[in-house]
Amino acid sequence: xxxxxxxxxxxxxxxxxxxxxxxxxxxxxxxxxxxxxxxxxxxxxxxxxxxxxxxxxxxxxxxxxxxxxxxxxxxxxxxxxxxxxxxxxxxxxxxxxxxxxxxxxxxxxxxxxxxxxxxxxxxxxxxxxxxxxxxxxxxxxxxxxxxx
Length: 148
Prior knowledge:
Elements (H helix, E strand, L loop, with lengths): L2 H18 L4 H8 L3 H8 L7 H10 L4 H7 L3 H10 L16 E7 L2 E6 L5 E4 L5 E5 L2 H11 L1
Antiparallel strand pairs: 1-2, 2-3, 3-4
Helix pairs in contact: 1-4, 1-5, 2-3
């Protein structure tokens, strides 16, 4: 899924998410940090939400069944992976994957792990710092190949 596809899916379901949570347009606009006029225009399909507004919505309403049906169960992590795609980030150390991760590959001090719930992958260095996170194993393996 691309950023554009996420934004499109969120735009198509904006009003449904608002009604799912029992919110008025005034309250939803306040939550998203946009004007009521902008929200109304977005709900009518005249003004699409931007990436930042879509990210705010999926983050705030991460328990939405409407969004889960459209984007999958672990959509917040997917959006995070999209946001960080093609960006070098220094992640903090992890706990090494002792609970929610299974090891896929270990090589030269690096570990590729898969989350047992969301099924996304991550690459850890020898100090258990995350180097990349993705739903695409090949992308993680290519990243590993590029740093060795």
